[in-house]
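TODO from last week: model NADH-quinone oxidoreductase subunit H.
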Amino acid sequence: MSLLTAVLPAAVEGGGGVGATAAADFSNDNFWIWLLKAVAIIVFLLTSVLIAIWFERKVVARMQVRPGPNVHGPFGLLQSLADAMKLLVKEDITVKAADKLVYILAPMIAVFCSLLTFAVIPFGPAVSLFGIVTPLQLTDFPVATLYILACASVGVYGIVLGGWASGSTYPLLGSVRSTAQVISYELAMGLSLVSVFIIAGSMSTSQIVSSQTQIWWFLPLLPAFVIYVISMVGETNRLPFDLPEAEGELVSGYMTEYSSMKFAWFFLAEYINMLNVSAVATTLFLGGWRAPWPISAINDGMFNEGWWPVLWFLAKVWLFMFLFVWIRGSVLRFRYDQFMKIGWKVLIPVALGWVVCVAVVQGVRQFSGLDLRTTLFVIAGVVLAGVLVSFLIPEKKDEPAADRGEPEEFDAFAGGFPVPPLPGQVLPPSRRQERRAQAAREAAAQAPTETPQVTQEVHGG
């Protein structure tokens, strides 16, 4: 926050390259307009989740040369609704060892926090609703983007508490992984947004959209955009970053002990969060509800007025949703060490370096009058080239086992809870391994005496 407080006032005073942008005007709104917008957002999110589930299954099926859902409804569109009804009427089981209050409260926290983000997302410009001119946005305030990050951070408590309150090993491991994942990737995500605040001169979502009239920020801020896209996949626990619910090793992670509607709430929160991060990427980097060029230049921007912008906004959001599905159908899950290395050794250092570069360019530009776009494009090229070169540098190989000495034998159950061996440690051999080793030694001892007899029999035959 110290960087923000130091840079943002100067950006606003200096114009940030775009001048002081106009914020959305909510002065005409009344209670019924607020209620209508809130209900519309909830209906939009719930409907979009049903479509997203069908969309994901259909796209992944096509990637794997399968038909996908095609029985319930036209093109299988009612399959998601059937799955929701199945979860609704399924038996609801509560684990005896669970902390009952927290066990039930955890999925509610996850869903409630996921529904808050769209309150500050602009769907379009001001339109007339029942004779009242109002923006297609529920509300906005000067620190709306920080509000989005806060909602995402609090929502993770649902996952952490759900895994802890289940009273089981696998959910606990999933919740601990989720904590590490949030710390790692929310730092990179927040840093990737700082450069947008500096250039736009505001943290208000409507003002950031207004600042992208001439150019969308993903072009001059390409490294920040790439970092945000990678971080948003990790933030939503999606492949290849779905370690908190890795079904291959943790059954279903933090959701293992949940069933019926409590499981459905976690499932719902995951897909709503996908829509949330897609909408934030659209708003901050892809011009929000603004039409793409050259459509935006037709008839003095007629497609940026009225209800047309809602179409452009939804198209951009679903472009990111397709990216989520594409990654899931193409990339394998990372190992945990790879996951942490990407977060702490690549994303965070690059994001910090990029923020410093943008802040320096912005400060120098205010005094020298340099062209913002050209300078940022050059810096973006240098940063991307440096990242690519870093992947070409070979890693330092581990020392041979002989140089490290014999590994230390330890008891995994010494503390009363099973723990995996650390580097340089080895588990004691099991009884089965000891029997196999004994059998191998006996076979090796008998081999010299049996060999001549076998050779004689073969030649005699």
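Done. The chain has a mean pLDDT of 81.
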